[in-house]
Design goal:
Blueprint lengths: L5 H23 L10 H13 L7 H11 L1 E5 L8 E5 L5 H4 L13 H13 L1
Antiparallel strand pairs: 1-2
Length: about 120
C-alpha cells in the first residue's frame, strides 16, 4: 500500500498541470502583455531587492522591461521539477531577470497563462 495521501495526490496533480501549461506556453515562444504584479508580491520583491542588492535585477527595472517588452514563460533547467519562471520577452537570464508566475496578477489576457498564474498561487 504505497498510495500517497489525498493531499499529496492533489498537489502532484496540480504540479503536473502547471508543468503541462508552462511547457505549452514556453514552447509557443509567445510574448504576452504584462498584467502587473500583486501588491503583496511587489512589497516582498522590493524588500528582497533592498536586503540583497545586486543579486537580481531590481523589481522596478523588471517591471519597466515587462511593460515595454512583454513577458514570456520559461522552464527551469529541470522542467519536470515544476520550476516555472516569467521573464521579459527579450531575456533568457532566469537567474537575474525572472519572477514567479504566482507574483503576477491573475488578469492575463491569455487563458492558459491565467490558469498557470492561478495554479501557481495555489501551490505556494
Amino acid at each position: 500500500m504505497n498510495e500517497a495521501p489525498p493531499d499529496q495526490e492533489e498537489k502532484e496533480r496540480k504540479k503536473g498541470e502547471i508543468i503541462t501549461l508552462a511547457r505549452e506556453l514556453s514552447e509557443s515562444q509567445e510574448s504576452f502583455p504584462f498584467p502587473g504584479i500583486e501588491s503583496g508580491s511587489y512589497e516582498k520583491l522590493k524588500a528582497a531587492d533592498e536586503e540583497f542588492p545586486g543579486f537580481v535585477t531590481p523589481i522596478d527595472e523588471l517591471i519597466v522591461r515587462f511593460e515595454s517588452e512583454g513577458m514570456k514563460v520559461a522552464l527551469g533547467e529541470y522542467p519536470d521539477s515544476g520550476n516555472v519562471f516569467i521573464l521579459p520577452s527579450q531575456s533568457n537570464d532566469i537567474e537575474m531577470d525572472s519572477i514567479l508566475p504566482r507574483h503576477l496578477r491573475p488578469e492575463a489576457t491569455d487563458e492558459k497563462l491565467n490558469e498557470l498564474i492561478l495554479l501557481s498561487k495555489e501551490q505556494k
